[in-house]
Amino acid sequence: MHGWTGRILRVDLNRLEHSFQKLDGDFARKWVGGRGFASRILWEELEPGTDPLGPDNELIIARGPLTGLLAPSSGKLVVAAKSPLTGGYGDGNIGTTASVELGKAGYDAIIIRGRAPRHSMLVVEDNKVSVEPAEDIWGLDTFEAERRLRKTYGRFAGILVIGPAGENLVRYATIISQEGRSGGRPGIGAVMGSKNLKAVVIKGSGEVPVADKKELVKTATQAFRDIKHKPNYEFWMRQGTMMTVQWGQENSVLPAYNYSEGVFEASESMDGYAMERVKVTQRGCPNCNMTCGNVVLDEEGKESELDYENVAMLGSNIGLGDIRKIAVLNRLADMYGLDTISLGNTIGFAMEASEKGLLEEKLEWGDYERVRELIGEIARREGLGGLLAEGTRRMAERLGGEAYKFAMNVKGLETSAYDCHATPGMALAFATSPIGAHHKDAWVISWEVSTDRLSYGREKAAKVIEHQRIRGGMFESLVTCRLPWIEVGLDLDYYPRLFKAATGISMSLDDFMALGDRIYAQIRAFWIREYGSWDRRYDQPPAKWFEKPLTKGPLKGAKLDYTRYQGLLDHYYDLRGWDTRGIPRRGTLRRLGLEDVAEELDRIVGLSE
Amino acid sequence: MLRVKYLGHYSMVRGMRVEEISLDAPTTIRKLLEERLGDALDWDQTIVLVNGRPVSPDYKVKDGDVVSVMPFIGGG
After folding, report:
1. Alpha-carbon span B26 to B14, nearest angstrom
2. What is the least distance, in Å, from the CA of A44 to any CA of chain B?
3. Which of A208, A234, A239, A295 gives a 20 to 30 Å CA spacing to A380?
4. C-alpha distances in angstroms, A555 versus A116, A251, A322, B50, B56?
């Protein structure tokens, strides 16, 4: 086997045992890696109705056949589990040296089950696997915990940790690496915490076997060079994703005041240029030559690694326009191990609820001092923080009445930082993302605003699917970063070539698109089995975008049209080969090689022909 | 007077983020931007807004318009 290490590590924390499993070749070719592996393994191994925070949930850490190899921005790995936030499939992607070490240690995935009897950490050094006590780092923030671990395991060890948020089972706790790399938005950090697992340390001394090293080096070198010569490369290196603040403002998609508006009056004091004024350095993932982690000195004089999502969510979305204060909130979120997107959403939701008199506590827009405290309260589940730790879906249920109308989530996962009053295609992308409202699978706004942005035509559904196949299918399984392609325009044809050089297996781009469809159907099946039924109401964008029009900016008055959105969703289902409930048809599942899934789903919901 | 805002790498190509232009004669977005951005301008990967709304390259600019020219981006 090439590209893959051919081995999976299984850890049972109940019994403090581990075993090595051979990776089946057919399985590897069918699911490739990362999200492909995770989605299939969770389907095969979790009993329906498994408590996401109970010992029977599985935490999966997976690489793909390009991860850590010489390939553009290949230092990424996928973390996945059944989500405590959504109750469905959840995963996330982290750029970390742990991704490289995982392959070097000889594993394509680690599957962790059970709950350790005491606070623990998993230490993997090649074939040596042990569960060690972690009492002395339990309770520490992620930065401090990692620094302590580095003293023991060295600066090159791959380290994944959770903070107090994961320990206290905050439903959107993430896993953190390298003091600011965060992944697993749908509460994968809480799953780790529920297993009494504070950290995973990975060190490897081997090498992942590749089929044609010469070809891999040649192709990758060309790709790295292409990236550096792209016209926007230089500007990307200055601002990275932070350019999106100004871009979003110009296009009226920058979320402000809990997604009530798409423009923000103080955007210039939090945009890429404001960031550049306080930028001190830049960080990146392994094997990346277009590093995007912009490190600034925050209001308290400490380093904070910023990107667009956390700035928009902890900035304009809560009415705060000071980049250095936003940077403090971002740093605290990383230290506590909280997802900044859901955090900005729950705070924005609470501010709107307070404004409407639905909360006892008064929480003003842009109240930096109060928010600064509140983030710690969320991580510790104290007072109002205990409510916010539950995410907007549960918050709305608790507050009752009309609160659900401004709870900005899909399937329980909070929306990323794009206002969709005037972008139906992006609203569809959020609504059909396989983990809930996240932007990683399909980000169609650039294309959408350049066309007829307020339309609901079939081509928009097709564009969302195209992105989902490439971003959510191919990149999440290979596992490498999508940004070389999506941000600077690296030719997609590089990826089948790199894959061939690594694995010796020919897969065309079309084959990768089919892989994306297979993964999407598999994940959808997981949700259906967990929810016990399914219909299109789960694929709806948040109500606010339909009901409350924009009141500011050039698109004042714009909002989504409910009936026309249903037409767009019908196109999407039809193009995917799913029925009008959003359930894959029998023939679609057969075509994708998922006969066993068809059989099981048919028993639950009755499949359409 | 016309205002042109250059976003992203177009600000580096043009060497400024905002430009104020006096219009001597009516002109189109295409001509206006091709004169200023030259070969760096990739119409397939560029969005042009006038007063916050997308326009085609053949739109005729007029006094008071605010033009924003920006590359496609990936959104992370």
Report:
1. 22
2. 31
3. A295
4. 54, 9, 25, 12, 18
Q: Inter-chain contact A231–B42, Cβ cutoff 8 Å?
A: yes
d(CA A240, CA A247): 12
| B:5-44 residues touching chain A, CB 8 A cutoff | 5, 7-9, 11-12, 17, 40, 42
Every domain of chain A and the residues it spans: 7-203, 241-410, 418-489+508-609
Give the ipTM of the model, two decimals please.
0.95
Contact assignment for A439 to B76 by CB distance below 8 Å: yes
A554 touches chain B (CB under 8 A): yes
Is B54 in Cβ contact with A235 (below 8 Å)? no
CB-based contact A446 B47, cutoff 8 Å? yes
Does the distance separating the beta carbons of B52 and A235 come in below 8 Å?
Answer: no
A contact test, residue of B9, B17, B51, B68 with most A CBs within 10 A: B9
The top-level CATH class assigned to B2-71 is: alpha beta
- Nearest Cα neighbor of A96 from A285, A275, A240 is A285
Q: Count contacts between A and B (CB, < 8 Å).
A: 79
Return d(Cα B33, Cα B19) in angstroms, integer: 12
- Domain boundaries of chain B, sorted by first residue: 2-71
pLDDT at A462: 98
Closest in B42, B70, B76 to A250, CB measured = B70
Domain A7-203 class, CATH top level: alpha beta
Domain with residues A418-489+508-609, CATH architecture: Orthogonal Bundle (1.10)
- Mean pLDDT of residues grouped by 10 in chain A (609 residues)? 98 98 98 98 98 98 98 97 98 97 98 98 98 98 98 97 98 97 97 98 98 98 97 96 97 98 98 98 96 97 96 98 98 98 98 96 97 98 98 98 97 98 98 97 92 95 98 97 94 98 98 98 98 97 98 97 98 98 98 98 97
Question: What is the crossing angle of helices A34-45 and A509-531, to 10°?
Answer: 30
Asked whether the beta carbons of residue B8 and residue A235 sit closer than 8 angstroms, the reply is yes
* CA neighbor of A514 nearest in space, from A473, A477, A464, A575: A473
Q: Quick one: what percent of chain A has pLDDT higher than 70?
A: 100
CATH of domain A241-410: 1.10.569.10
Query: pLDDT tens, A399-450?
Result: 999 999 999 999 999 999 999 999 999 999 999 999 999 999 999 999 999 8
